[in-house]
Amino acid sequence: MDGKGRSKSILEEVTEKTKALKAETGMQPGLAVVIVGSDPASQVYVGSKAKRAEECGFKSVKHELPAETSEADLLKIVDDLNKDDTIHGILVQLPLPKQIDDGKVIQAIDPDKDVDGFHLVNVGRIATGAADEAFVPCTPAGCMVMIRDMLGEDLSGLNAVIVGRSNIVGKPMAQLLLAANATVTIAHSRTKNLAAVCANADILVAAVGRPEMVTGDYVKEGAVVVDVGINRVDAPEKGMKEDGSPKTRLVGDVAYDEAAKKAKAITPVPGGVGPMTIGMLMANTLRSAYRAAGKEAPKF
Ligand SMILES: Nc1nc(=O)c2c([nH]1)NC[C@@H]1CN(c3ccc(C(=O)N[C@@H](CCC(=O)O)C(=O)O)cc3)C=[N+]21
Asked: Where does NADP(+) bind (predicted)?
């Protein structure tokens, strides 16, 4: 499953619907991305989010704050963005430095601008089957688009196994699959006979953060496999960097070649779930702007 290509089609639709909203109401969707500290990987993600937002025709605002920023100062910025009518989506890049309580910052974001879908109000909306009114977290939302492309809207009778129980992927993924009528199992590091549990899955979602842990024997013949992992591992076969350390490459949580032999469809890393996450962030921001304009939000 080509996440990069599918994400492109979503971004095109977002761009089109942004034009339509502007023509009809004069409103332009606005996305604010806040990053604290200078972790290089985080900088790259934030940069590409801002770039995509501009390509969609959004107003894009980036707040880059020093690593020693206090919680109070960050909360003040969030509060200002909550009150800013030109901003429809607020994303505070995680993780935050240790002097700042992630939970406190997330709960300070206006739930109706929480395009990450991490606020308790949105978590609760999804858990109670009100996903249409909620912001659905971007990574699970992107996974669902690819699963539905393969299997249709109704997953009745299918077994879905998610490996990983995080609040940002595993748990919301389970809610979305359940809402689509799949029979859902959440497996994790304490699960007994993990390979056997996974081998029962028609839909297998790997979100554990352990490079290539899901090997061929975990995969049922004909399964749809979604790999959420993005792990940077040493790749000495590519040679050395200038500082003498080995070059690196990205791998998922799934051993791709082995799994691909058995799967009906599988997402690659890179080029799978990652680009879909960014696509869904733009879709959520567009939806937020439509709601602020009092118009029915387009579905993705
Ligand atoms: N509040 C918050 N929301 C997030 O959504 C969030 C976050 N914090 N913190 C960090 C993680 C990470 N994340 C990624 C998004 C896209 C790719 C992506 O597009 N990856 C490319 C590869 C990029 C590369 O080459 O490094 C791919 O998989 O093809 C990766 C990672 C969003 N995150």
From this structure: 164-166, 230
- Mean pLDDT for the stretch of residues 145-160: 98
* Nearest ligand 1 atom to alpha carbon 92: 1
Domain-wise residue ranges, the chain: 22-132+276-292, 138-273
Task: Give the residue among 143, 141, 95, 134 at the shortest CA–CA distance from 113.
Answer: 134
Strand-pair partners of 60: 31
Instruction: Give me the chain's average pLDDT, please.
Output: 96
pLDDT at position 163 is 98
Is the Cβ atom of 141 under 6 angstroms away from ligand 1?
A: no
Task: Specify the pLDDT at position 39.
Answer: 81
Whether residue 60 has its Cβ less than 6 Å from ligand 1? no
33 pLDDT above the threshold of 80: yes
**What pLDDT sits at residue 196?**
98
Does any ligand 1 atom lie closer than 6 A to the CB of residue 94?
Answer: yes
Specify the CATH number of the domain 22-132+276-292.
3.40.50.10860
Strands 30-36 and 89-92: parallel
Name the nearest CA neighbour of 174 among 214, 150, 144, 130: 144
Q: How do beta strands 89-92 and 159-163 pair?
A: unpaired
Residue nearest (by alpha carbon) to ligand 1 atom 20 = 274
Give CA–CA dist 137/144, Å, rounded: 11
The answer to whether residue 41 scores a pLDDT higher than 80 is: no
Give domain 138-273's CATH superfamily: NAD(P)-binding Rossmann-like Domain (3.40.50.720)
DSSP state of 215: -
- Report the C-alpha gap between 265 and 263 in whole angstroms: 5
